[in-house]
Write a structure and sequence with these properties.
Elements (H helix, E strand, L loop, with lengths): L10 E2 L1 H9 L3 E4 L3 H6 L6 E2 L5 H8 L6 E4 L4 H12 L4 E4 L2 H7 L16
Parallel strand pairs: 1-5, 2-3, 2-4, 4-5
Length: 118
């Protein structure tokens, strides 16, 4: 292990995240309410980044890995760090939901209509 390896946050590319979700992981979307309302990953848990420390541990299923997502991947890094400090196996989605959508990941809006990443 290199000198700075312990400071690196684990991240996953969209294809890895899709496989993790199909194997029981949970997606945590840390974007703001307006972004969430525009479009989201089906089945994701929504907790805005400012509330992650207090709310996410209560809302996430216990014992499952968590893929943390935001629009581009920057907010998810901080949220991933907070969750890992609380003992939760969390991974930041590399490139965020824009990369997810580009890789063919589904985004849904309200009422199961197609959504968009805002």
């Amino acid at each position: 292990m290199g000198l700075f390896d312990r400071f690196k946050l684990p991240s996953v590319k969209p294809a890895e995240a899709m496989e993790m979700l199909s194997n029981g992981a949970t997606m945590l979307d840390v974007r703001e309410n307006s972004e969430w309302n525009a479009g989201r990953v089906p089945g994701a848990v929504h907790v805005p980044v400012k509330n992650v420390s207090d709310q996410a541990p209560k809302r996430l299923p216990k014992g499952r890995p968590v893929v943390v997502a935001c629009r581009t991947g920057s907010r998810s890094k901080g949220a991933t760090r907070l969750l890992r400090e609380k003992g939760i196996e969390a991974y930041s989605l590399s490139g965020g939901l824009t990369a997810w959508e580009s890789a063919g990941g589904r985004i849904q809006g309200k009422g199961n209509r197609p959504g968009m990443i805002a």
